[in-house]
C-alpha cells in the first residue's frame, strides 16, 4: 500500500461528499450490515467508486460507505469489511483506515461476529473487546514504514481505548444489557477452528475467536485513532458446540441478537457526541 493509493481514495470520497467528515468511524461485521437503517444518511459511496479500496466478497458485507448521523453523532459507517481469507494482502487492508485518518477520523468502533470459548457466553451474547491476540499470521504494517502516519515501533498497551471501554459499559448498564468483556483472537480463516485449536486457545486465556478486527486495530493505533471493539457471539467454538459450524449460523444468530447490539451502539454513539 502506498501513500498515493490513500490519496486517491481520499480524493474520491471528497468528490462524492463535500461536507464535514465525521470524526467517528464504525465497521460493521457479519450480520450487522443493517445497522445502517439507524442512520440519517447524507451520502452512500460504493467501495467500487473508491480507487484501491479492496472489494468484499462475503455474504453479509455490502461494500458501501454510509456517511451521516446516528442520533446526534456524525458517523462514517463501513457496511461490510474485507478479510485476509478473501485473498487481500494484509497491507491493502490498511487503506480504508488510513483514508479515514486523512479525512479526520479520531474514533474507530470495530464490530465482528465471533465464536465463544465459554459455555456461559453463548450465541446472542455481546462481548466488549478489552485486548486481542494476533494469530492471523500477518500484519498490515509489515514493509516500509510511512512516518506520516505513525512511528516504525508503536505501543499497543492500550489497543482498545479505556475511555471508550468505560462508555460501552455505561451504555450497557443504562440499557440493562448483559455485557461480557474479554480477549479476542484473530485467526486467518476461512475455515472454522478445530476442537484442538479451541482447547489451545482456551488455555491461552482467549475468550472469543474470529477472522477480522485485529488488522484494523493495528492500523488505527499506528496512526493515533482510538479504538473500541465489540464481538457479537454467534456460536460456541468447535468441540463446545453440539453441531457443525457454518456461516449460515453466523448470519442467523447475528440476526437474532441484532436488537441488543444495535441499541448498545446507538446509546454508545450518543455518548461520544457529549
Automatic annotation (TrEMBL):
Coiled-coil residue windows: none
Biological function: The purine nucleoside phosphorylases catalyze the phosphorolytic breakdown of the N-glycosidic bond in the beta-(deoxy)ribonucleoside molecules, with the formation of the corresponding free purine bases and pentose-1-phosphate.
A GO term, aspect molecular function: purine-nucleoside phosphorylase activity
Residues of the Nucleoside phosphorylase domain: 25-269
Binding site for phosphate: 30, 61, 81-83, 113, 212
Entries under Pfam families matching the protein: PNP_UDP_1
Domain of life: Bacteria
Gene Ontology biological process terms, A to Z: nucleoside metabolic process
EC number: 2.4.2.1
Family: Belongs to the PNP/MTAP phosphorylase family.
Name listed for the protein in its UniProt record: Purine nucleoside phosphorylase
Keywords, in A-Z order: Glycosyltransferase, Transferase
Matches recorded under InterPro entries: Nucleoside_phosphorylase_d, Nucleoside_phosphorylase_sf, Pur_Nuc_Pase_Ino/Guo-sp, Purine_phosphorylase
Pathway: Purine metabolism; purine nucleoside salvage
PANTHER family: METHYLTHIOADENOSINE/PURINE NUCLEOSIDE PHOSPHORYLASE, PURINE NUCLEOSIDE PHOSPHORYLASE-RELATED
GO cellular component: cytoplasm
Residue positions binding a purine D-ribonucleoside: 193, 235
Organism in which the protein naturally occurs: Paremcibacter congregatus
Amino acid at each position: 500500500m502506498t501513500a498515493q493509493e490513500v490519496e486517491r481514495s481520499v480524493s474520491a470520497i471528497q468528490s462524492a461528499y463535500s461536507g464535514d467528515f465525521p470524526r467517528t468511524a464504525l465497521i460493521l461485521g457479519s450480520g450487522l450490515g443493517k445497522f445502517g437503517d439507524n442512520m440519517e444518511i447524507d451520502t452512500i459511496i460504493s467501495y467500487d467508486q473508491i480507487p484501491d479500496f479492496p472489494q468484499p466478497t462475503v455474504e453479509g458485507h455490502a461494500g458501501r460507505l454510509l456517511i451521516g448521523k446516528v442520533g446526534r453523532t456524525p458517523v462514517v459507517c463501513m457496511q461490510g469489511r474485507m478479510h485476509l481469507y478473501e485473498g487481500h494482502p494484509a497491507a491493502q487492508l490498511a487503506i480504508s483506515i488510513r483514508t479515514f485518518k486523512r479525512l479526520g477520523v479520531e474514533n474507530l468502533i470495530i464490530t465482528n461476529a465471533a465464536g465463544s470459548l465459554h459455555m456461559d457466553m453463548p450465541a446472542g451474547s455481546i462481548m466488549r473487546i478489552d485486548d486481542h491476540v494476533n494469530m492471523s499470521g500477518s500484519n498490515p504494517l509489515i514493509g516500509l514504514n510511512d512516518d506520516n502516519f505513525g512511528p516504525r515501533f508503536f505501543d499497543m498497551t492500550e489497543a482498545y481505548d479505556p475511555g471508550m471501554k468505560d462508555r460501552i459499559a455505561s451504555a450497557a448498564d443504562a440499557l440493562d444489557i448483559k455485557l461480557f468483556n474479554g480477549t479476542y483472537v484473530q485467526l486467518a480463516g476461512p475455515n472454522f477452528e478445530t476442537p484442538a485449536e479451541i482447547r489451545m486457545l482456551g488455555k491461552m486465556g482467549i475468550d472469543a475467536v474470529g477472522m477480522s478486527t485485529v488488522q484494523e486495530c493495528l492500523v488505527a493505533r499506528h496512526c493515533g485513532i482510538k479504538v473500541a471493539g465489540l464481538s457479537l457471539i454467534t456460536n460456541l467454538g468447535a468441540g463446545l458446540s453440539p453441531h457443525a459450524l457454518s456461516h449460515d449460523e453466523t448470519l442467523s444468530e447475528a440476526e437474532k441478537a441484532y436488537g441488543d447490539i444495535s441499541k448498545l451502539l446507538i446509546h454508545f454513539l450518543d455518548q461520544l457526541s457529549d
